[in-house]
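Write out the 3D structure for:
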Amino acid sequence: MEINITDEEWEELSPENFETAALLRAVDAVDDLRNDLNDGEDGRPPQLRTDLLKLHQLAMAVINQGSRSQVADLFEFAVDLEDQVLGMMTALEQVQETLSQLTALYPESLSYADLDDAD
């Protein structure tokens, strides 16, 4: 089934309104996330998971067991992980922004085609 959009909608689908290279940058962002979240060698869990468990151990030692000697380690590690997660969020925001730019150009007449299919 061929679906047609209006000439006005077609005009909106132009390089001035959406740079297709942005999708390649989104792929790069996902690759960055894969590096951060990919399972380790031999099926080991992602490093972030391992690091969060290590942070939990440090927090248990400091907060629950009163180990003052590990306070600096706890917060240094927490800051490092926070930076890592912020980097991941930035990558995901880039992907979401790119997809939002594209979906904002969604031709209204395609919605009408969905209604025609329901009949």
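The first helix runs from residue 7 to 12.
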